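Aim 2 progress update. The chain analyzed this quarter is reproduced below.
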Amino acid sequence: MKVKVIGAGLAGSEAALQLAKRGIEVDLYEMRPKKMTGAHTTEKFAEFVCSNSMGSYDISNASGLLKKEMELLGSELIKIAFEVKVPAGNALAIDREMFSQKVTEKITQNPLINVIREEVSEIPDGCVIVASGPLTSDNMAKSIQSFTQEEHLHFFDAVAPIVEKDSINFDKAFYASRYDKGEASYINCPMNKEEYEKFYDILINAERIELKEFEKDAKFFESCLPVEVLASRGVDTLRFGPMKPVGLIDKRTNEKSYAVVQLRQDNSIKTLYNIVGFQTNLKWSYQKELIHSIPGLENANIVRYGVMHRNTFLNSPKILTEHLNTIRRPDLFFAGQITGVEGYTESMASGLVAGINMAKFVKGEEVLTLPKETILGALLSYITDKNHKQLQPVNSNWALINHGIEFPKNIRKDKKAKAEILSKRSLDVLSGVLNNL
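Predicted structure tokens:
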């Protein structure tokens, strides 16, 4: 039996590879380059369109634990991500072009995966995984809406600008990681109070790209707010958010900064850096003025401006089971951000589970149920929890896990120690289900 996978993003690519690994033929549909989205720039698979960071890989961090669980479950994309990682302290940041290239090659060279470059406008019959992403085409979105009989929810995802490293003024900028943890892999642009106030004045008075009528009632996702939205919450909001100066000292001066703008390596040859936390919907001329007001970036060559685009996701608690197939139609699975998970790693993880469970469904085997003590099991349980009145997209985080542990009194206020206990339990519990793959 052949499975149709709609969309060759992070989730769809992972799902297709999982199916092929289990001997199942796949028709993988991708509408790019015939029909592009508002965020993608290439026709390659698994393209990163926002930051190039996948978050921490330390298993005492929820995001790091998720990566470890995926590795144990046999994720193909997480393996490639580590192959193309670039320095970013304790975070897993990747060379996005190399990553997409490797994923594309792995898929196109697989004899069990048939790539079809065309838009799918309706949910097909048969065994299907819909991984069409947050930028699902209008035609497909209408088909999904008709099937689910539910209104879609919308929010915005904003992309940060990228600048050329050679255009950064290192008389002002300096390399450091916060509190000197790990490699000094971030470029830091320090500001004094006067410089920050000038920057803030430009930001709050800058013109934004006008939203389309259907976008005006949409919701922002809290962890990916445009910098101008954060700034609108108060003059010091950025100084306690993406521009916080704590733990970042220029050893040349030993002076504390009033605010700091950080840049993170964006490609493996260290020529491009993205501005951390600066996803934005400002008009490009205002972005240029704002970036050039940052000490060290006065003459920065901006190779990509920030953009903002619509994201679409299902009301998953009413639509999906925790195995990611639909309640109404067991042979129809969904994966990726359209399910309500948020983040690169989470999208890959959902594709991993959808691929494994579709393979089991096709073979007539019992589908995989991940324990809620694991971060991935907890994440899937959360987005499909029938008690939700209104789902909001969610990243992996410790609050999702069913703790059920009486922590010793001496560590109840020690977040790291508690996280280490939860991580160990998760990996122990996961080891018990690995034989069922």
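The first strand starts at residue 3 and ends at 6. The mean pLDDT is 90. These observations will guide the mutagenesis experiments scheduled for the next reporting period.
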